[in-house]
Every structure is written in structure tokens, then in C-alpha cells.
Amino acid sequence: MGHYAIALGSRRWLRPLPMAWLLFASIEPDLHDVLGGMAPSLGIGPDTHTLPGAFAAAVVLAAAAMLIFRRARLALGTGLLVLSHVAADYFTSRLPLWRHGPVAGLHLYATPWADFLLEAGTIAIGLALYARSPDLRRPARAGVSVIAVLMLALQAGWNFGLGGG
User: In 10 A of CB 14, how many CB atoms?
Assistant: First the structure.
């Protein structure tokens, strides 16, 4: 949920980008993982969450944003969203820095309460920024609290029930 919260929070500065684009960029490494798992012959799975893999994905998506949206600031924002994914994952996981390289990370997934608190804080900050987005209409601002409850419930399910710890 934290990746989505970062995308929502970025909306304040990256308004011309469609929300779907922001959400896509924020989870691109995970989508890349899925693609690598579905087509192992591509050989992309092992690198999606490494520093070189994240930088490569960030450059590719930033270039795509530049071609599509024709604004350097939006391209840079897109690349930073991709990089934010891997940076956040180094808090929650232990990942290789590069293929066959040393692993790093706090591995908060092993401590569900710590991971939940980090994710909840990220959700709170991301949604607070999103609620201040100048293009968000007043009735939609009221829905931000509903989004927050839903995101926190899903995160709690991950950490304490269905999928995680």
C-alpha cells in the first residue's frame, strides 16, 4: 500500500500525469517481476529490485513519459516514482544491490508491527499530500479518509492475516 500512497502523494507535483500512470510507475518493479515470472526466458526477474535494474526501469519509463507527455519535469517525476519503489522495498525486505551482489535492507516484513507502522505512516503522509493537490475537488477530499481506511485495512490484512506476517 505504501507504493500506492507515494503515487497518490506525488499527484500534488505531477498533476498533468494521469493517476493510472502514477500508480503504474510506483509499482513498475513488481509488475516487471510478474513479467519475469511469466516469461523466465527474458531473464529480467532477478534484476527488477536491484539498483541497476531499478535505474534502468526508471530511465525507460522517464523516456516514455518524455515522449508521451513532453515535459522534462514529468519525466523526472516518473523516474523518481520507479526509484521510490525500490528504495521503499529496502526498508521492508532484504534485496540484492545487484545481481549476485550483497543483500541490504531492514526486512521489516519479518516484524509485522514495524512494517505496518512504516506503511501506515507512508499512507498518512501520501494521502495528506494527495488531499492538498490543487486539482482535487472538494467532494473528493472527503473520500480521502475512506481511501485511508481501505488502504490501512488492506495493509493490516497483509501484515497480520491473509498474505503476510
Answer: 25
Whole-prediction pTM: 0.88
Closest CA to 121 of 92, 95, 101, 162: 92
Convert the pLDDT of each residue in 120-152 to its tens digit.
999 999 999 999 888 777 767 778 889 999 999
Closest alpha carbon to 53 in 96, 88, 24, 92: 96
**Which run of H or of E encompasses 104?**
strand 103-104
- Cα 151 from chain centroid (whole Å): 14
Determine which helix (DSSP H) or strand (DSSP E) holds 117, and give its type and residue range.
helix 112-131
CA 73/CA 75 separation, integer angstroms: 5
Which three cell numbers mark 75? 519525466
What's the rounded Cα separation, in Å, for the pair 83 and 89?
A: 10
DSSP code for 102: -
**pLDDT per residue over 74-128, tens digit each?**
999 999 999 999 999 999 999 999 999 999 999 999 999 999 999 999 999 999 9
The span from the CA of 141 to the CA of 87, in Å, is 29
Of 16, 8, 2, give the one whose Cα is nearest residue 76.
16
**Cα–Cα dist 1/91, whole Å:** 14
Longest C-alpha distance within the chain, in Å?
50
